[in-house]
Amino acid sequence: MLLPARMAVLNYLSSVENADVNEIMEAMRPLYGKERQFTKDAYLDHVMSLEANGLCSLIRYELDDKDELSLRFAINDDGRAAVEKYVPAKYRNK
Amino acid sequence: MNHSANTARASLADAKMKQVNKKFRITGLTTGALSGLTYGIYTTLVLVAGYYEPLVSAVGILAAPYVCSGLNDLFAGIWLTIYNAKKGRLAEIGRTINTFPGKMMVLGALLGGPIANGAYLVGLALAGAYAIPISATCGLFGALFAWIFLKQRPTKRVVAGMIICVSGAIIINWVKPEGSPNFTLGIICALIAAICWGLEGMLSSYGGSMIDTDVATNIRELFSGLVDLVIIVPLVGGLGLLGGTLSAGMPVLWLAISGLSAGASFLLWYKSNATVGCAIGMSLNVTYAFWGVLFCILFLNQPVTLTIVVGSVVIIFGAILVTMNPLDFFKKGEA
Fold first, then answer.
1. Nearest chain B Cα distance for residue A13, angstroms
2. In Å, how far is B105's CA from the nearest CA of chain A?
3. Distance between CA A32 and CA A46 in Å, rounded?
4. ipTM for the whole complex
5. What are the structural domains, with CATH classification, of chain A?
6. CA within 20 to 30 Å of A78's CA: A16, B14, B242, B289, which one?
């Protein structure tokens, strides 16, 4: 069974230095891409809620090629501790 | 790209970022305030359902509240399942229960649902609107359990808020209303509800913030309703009453609407907690005590007494002080 989407987002952030929503979605597309909940709005909501709960931080924001706002998030210590504690080892990215 | 173009893009990014932050914050404050209003509506509608036969003449103090609580939570769970199905998130329910934070949430749902919701409704049945502000002291118990079990020392502000909450509860109980022989028992039930909600909040600190709140509320209401109806109602000898209520029609209709407002309230509350933080979210949600008492006075002929008005205001103020510094509302206002 797959991880719940929000947990999977945090799990992915624990494997990279930082990422914006488009990169997160690209990384999750192979497993979650076919689902109806796979929308940019939903994933922005996931990552911003994780930030509001103190599990990741907004490190920078900029305009992308299409002049859309791109928010870059990085996992922090609390987020990493949560992944280690609650995400089963078989899901974790090396 | 030259320097001035870069600066222009940077300030455009700043403006857009400000917009996003503002929208996020307004969403958090609005959902929090609406969660209080809808919880007040839920409280009033459950009481309305209880005025119909066969609930109104049910024997014993447990059967009718648990039939109401079970049907209400089950309806809330069904409404939330429909909502999540529309959003394409049904698979998330199984995935979430499969994780450790999800399992803690189910445990919390058992405390917060069958025990706390049931006790809240027994309290309402026995003590009327007086039970509402008493149950709002759950923030106090949440802070107390975090102190005992998670070693999170409360600040002076939190302790002051706790003392104010307790004083408010004493004011409410100073004069017992006439003609309610089980008034004190009702207040004790409301306290049990507050204690279990406090514990539920503490359990959600085990990884609960990694879980999608829309899915969490769905699991909570569905589990709570099923456990109420399948286990508790038969235990308290309420199966006949459940059958009678279902075939009576009208009370079920009211409980379906109260379930809608309870489901909406939890959805909005968790959303608020996940956007503006738990402290502000909880303080806004606690305003349900104000709405609940107001609606009972307006629509259910709850007599207005000095003790209920003063006590409610004191408890709401104390509960807000426990969860947040009221000055923060104004400080971050311009963000």
1. 12
2. 13
3. 14
4. 0.88
5. 5-88 (1.10.10.10)
6. B14
Q: How far apart are CA B335 and CA B331, in angstroms?
A: 9
CA dist., res. B113 & res. B119, Å (int): 9
Identify the three-state secondary structure at position A54: coil
Residues of B in contact with A6 (CB under 8 A): 210-212
CA distance A69 to chain B (A): 6
Burial class (CB within 10 angstroms; exposed 0-12, middle 13-18, buried 19+) of B227 = buried
Q: Could you tell me if B111 and B191 are in contact, meaning their C-beta atoms sit under 8 angstroms apart?
A: no
User: The tokens 């209880």 sit on which residue?
Assistant: B50
DSSP state at residue B295: H
- Select the residue of B207, B215, B277 nearest A52 (Cβ to Cβ): B277
Q: Strand order in A19-20's β-sheet?
A: A19-20, A69-75, A56-63
| CB contacts, 8 Å: B89 with chain A | 37
Report yes or no on B13 lying in a domain.
Answer: no
Of residues B12, B212, B274, nearest to A5 (C-beta): B212
On the CB side of B229, how many CA atoms lie within 13 Å of its CA? 19
Evaluate if residue B168 carries a pLDDT over 70. Answer: yes
| Contact at CB, A55 and B212, closer than 8 angstroms | no
Chain B residues in contact with A54 (beta carbon < 8 A): 209
CB-nearest to A4 from B88, B96, B277 is B96
Size of interface A-B (CB pairs under 8 A): 85
- Contacting residues of B for A60, CB less than 8 Å apart: none
**Residue B286's pLDDT band (boundaries 50, 70, 90)?**
confident
**Residue of chain A whose Cα is closest to the Cα of B276:** A52
| Joined tokens for residue B162 | 């706790």
Lookup: tokens for A77: 């210590």
Q: A93, A12 in Cβ contact below 8 A?
A: yes
Structure confidence at residue B277 as a pLDDT band (50, 70, 90): low
Secondary structure of B199-264 as H, E, C letters: HHHHHCCCCHHHCCHHHHHHHHHHHHHHHHHHHHHHHCCCHHHHHHHHHHCHHHHHHHHHHHHHHH
B83 CB neighbours in chain A (<8 A) are none
Assess contact for B197 and B141: CB atoms under 8 A: yes
Instruction: Give chain B's domain count.
Output: 1
Contacts of A87 (CB under 8 A, 6+ apart): A3, A7, A10, A11, B99
